[in-house]
Design brief:
Length: 256
């Protein structure tokens, strides 16, 4: 048990990578707050039942992470229940595929609101709590390989992830005196609902795989195992870096 009795918040944990991390953290002995979006696919009852299936102390917490009052209420709820917050995982994320020339302000703002503003809010509210506790703490952003490599027709997404990369590097410096480690995990193509359209299309899927040196999509569990390391005491001296979990995708440069 590598996270015994640590209190962890995972945002956007109703599916995909977030769900994988929440399940694994609970299996490692953490008390996990599993964040769901109000009005999302699962109602609160289903969310509580799902969280309970991850581990005996896991709870579902509802919050739109792009709203400060929601995030503050959520963190208060976690502290009221478990007494503290040790780990916050900024996982919630959305993407919209659209040629740049056609992107609307609403689409741009929506992506930035969840992926960047939401990550800022959760980091700030969580870090204030960690500082209040006297430290230490762990902030982990699930960014993307697109914090660094371009992805045509996903400009808002790439801008948000590039922003999360710089936020992480700044926070690693500002929060080091409080012994709060701040790192990113940059997943490549992981088999999750965000990629459902590609997974369901044999041609698109084959094309995607041809770009991945490892020859397959990744699994949420493979992101979760890096998250366990970054959330555990073993990563004490690790801060300000991005850990790629991408089967080599980032190294793939197609010249012709
Ligand atoms: C995106 C996926 C994409 C993957 C690799 C992820 O950040 O969410 O849509 O397949 O990066 O390009």
């Amino acid at each position: 048990m590598r996270l015994q009795d640590k209190v962890a918040l995972v945002t956007g944990a109703s599916s995909g990578i977030g769900k994988g991390i929440a399940e694994r953290f609970a299996a490692e002995g953490a008390h996990v707050a599993v964040n769901y979006r109000p009005g999302g696919a699962k109602d609160m009852e289903a969310a509580q039942a799902e969280a309970a299936s991850f581990g005996p102390t896991a709870i579902a917490v509802s919050a739109d992470i792009s709203k400060r009052e929601d995030v503050e209420r959520m963190v208060q709820e976690i502290v009221a229940k478990f007494g503290r917050l040790d780990i916050a995982i900024n996982n919630a994320g959305i993407e919209i595929k659209k040629p740049f020339l056609e992107v609307t302000d609403d689409e741009w703002n929506k992506v930035i609101a969840v992926n960047l503003f939401g990550a800022y809010l959760v980091s700030q509210v969580a870090a204030r709590q960690m500082v209040k506790q006297g430290g230490p703490g762990k902030l982990i952003n699930i960014s993307s390989v697109h914090e660094d490599i371009p992805f045509p027709e996903y400009t808002a997404y790439c801008a948000s992830k590039g922003g999360v990369r710089m936020m992480m590097r700044n926070l690693a410096m500002e929060l080091a005196p409080y012994k709060i480690n701040v790192n990113n995990i940059a997943p490549g193509a992981i088999a999750t609902p965000i990629n459902q359209a590609v997974l369901d299309d044999p041609v698109a899927s084959k094309n995607a795989i041809s770009e991945i040196p490892w020859g397959r999509f990744g699994k949420p569990e493979e992101v979760a195992s890096v998250a366990v390391f970054l959330a555990s005491d073993e990563s004490e001296y690790v801060t300000g870096s991005t850990y790629y979990v991408d089967g080599g995708l980032t190294q793939q440069v197609t010249l012709y």
